[in-house]
Amino acid sequence: xxxxxxxxxxxxxxxxxxxxxxxxxxxxxxxxxxxxxxxxxxxxxxxxxxxxxxxxxxxxxxxxxxxxxxx
Length: 71
Prior knowledge:
mainly alpha; Non-ribosomal Peptide Synthetase Peptidyl Carrier Protein, Chain A
């Protein structure tokens, strides 16, 4: 999970460093937009070595829920 959080923080435009936590509700953040959605998908693949679909991401509310898709 820590690697995923670091990857997201480094890749998301407008996301303050150290602001992401597992329980962060990412859709409620000011930086959430269509580009952030693509960053989430790419970061997930980079960290976990597998892909998730936009439909899977749509079911998630927190970063922890996204990371749990790797299991």
